[in-house]
């Protein structure tokens, strides 16, 4: 139980922090796996389900591996991956419907347990959503794992930025007459958005994906990088703090306790765990 508690806390904090710091919304997907584990540890009073923990752990690791370390990335069109995409979707859907169904009937989703008949519909909807997201996650993991180094030069670079509910940032450029549109995390985007020519070593995957470490753009921009990093760190810490306050408020309402009592209870639990 202690291992599950540590995982739930660490994964949840990492999800919110990395999602805000990098601007990659896929990090928030981790909360679908860490939050139920937190309720399994603190709220249910039942014996832990080891299979659910393994599923949550593997999926969290896949999200982190698919994103971490890539300041710029290009995903090739899915024309060559139709069969693989379908296979990933079906396998993921089967695993996820078991995961969500067990979480819902056991009360791990933050509210009382649902009956077995009522749990099927929300389990199916959540599974379809999660399986659709998992296609890109697992294919990217496979693509990055079997990638090879290559020198990559793009010219006529220009920033791409779309505002809205889901903000998107990227760098567009031309190589050998072909236009590439790279996704970018927040730090990399702010560092190179004014560059007109980029020549870097990349990792090119077996499915045509291209991944560039954000560290290669820091050289020569150390002062600017530190300034951007401090600003992003402040925003990420504020987001984690706000999320923690929301959780405390939810616990206060659920337990009918004051904030001080909730904090003392959680602190006592953490002391026992660590």
What does this structure look like?
With 274 residues, this protein is α+β, with helices and mostly antiparallel strands. It contains eight helices and six strands, in the order H-H-H-E-H-H-E-E-E-H-E-E-H-H. The protein has helices at 2-22, 31-42, 50-67, 82-106, 120-145, 186-192, 222-255, 259-273; strands at 70-74, 148-162, 168-175, 178-184, 197-204, 210-213. Strands 1-4-3-2-5-6 form a six-stranded antiparallel β-barrel. Helix 1 (2-22) packs across helix 7 (222-255) and helix 6 packs antiparallel against helix 7 (222-255). It is globular. 30% of the residues are buried. The model is unreliable at 269-274 (pLDDT under 50).
Distance between the ends: 12 Å
Form type: globular
User: Which stretches are poorly predicted, pLDDT < 50 over at least 5 residues?
Assistant: 269-274
Cα radius of gyration in angstroms? 21 Å
**Please, what is the average pLDDT?**
82
Number of discrete helical segments: 8
How many strand elements?
Answer: 6
Instruction: Tell me the major beta sheet.
Output: 6 strands, antiparallel, barrel
Derived structural class: alpha+beta
Portion of residues in beta strands equals 15-25%
Give, in spatial order, the strands making up the sheet with the most strands: 1-4-3-2-5-6
Helix proportion range: 55-70%
Succession of helices and strands: HHHEHHEEEHEEHH
